[in-house]
Give the backbone structure.
Amino acid sequence: MFLGILLLLLWSLIWKSWALWVAGTNREKKWFIFFCLFNTAGLIEILYIYYKKKKKTSPDGPHTHTHENYFLNKKTKASIKRGLIRTPGRRLGTA
């Protein structure tokens, strides 16, 4: 009996941790809070991870997300777009 409860806790902890990590990297605050508050023995977490993995590998190719642009303000992004600010791999003045 004790071993069964321990295995269920371990199972739930693994899936909950993975789902929290996926929700956090996708910046989905509502899902992150949901996973923190409710214990579903890994069932909802498995479905969430499966859905997100399936969505990432779409026919258009894998989802690529860079966190570096998230912290830039609109003015800086516009300057980079116009070529006024150098970025790695780009020369000044090229679009």
